[in-house]
Amino acid sequence: MYNDTVLDHFQNPRNTGEIENADGIGSAGNPTCGDVMKIFIKIEDGRLANVKYKTFGCAAAIATSSAASELLIGKSIEEAEKLTREEVAEALNGLPEKKMNCSNIAPDAIRAAIADYRSKIGN
Ligand code: FES
Do residues 62 and 77 make contact, with C-beta atoms less than 8 angstroms apart? Predict the structure, then answer.
């Protein structure tokens, strides 16, 4: 069902874990299955200098979390906020149509983390 890129990210997820003293933390879940992603961001000079996450979910949720973290590191806050599930799926060379909902988690979680960051800096 999954291509080799998805399987690679699922079996060897990149950037997993937590960031101590993260500048922003956000969570998002898939209400249909209960899978969740918690994401931690470090901001330097308006860019995402580091991104880590913990995802409890299906293979697609873990693979999309991993691919999203790679896409997000180095992006400006404004660029990161615009991350779409299509971009994440594209970075994985595609996902089965019925697993596309699983790729909502990372864009939703990063927006929550950025909102948390903005609320902390009062912006
Ligand atoms: Fe829950 Fe994929 S089945 S995120």
Answer: no
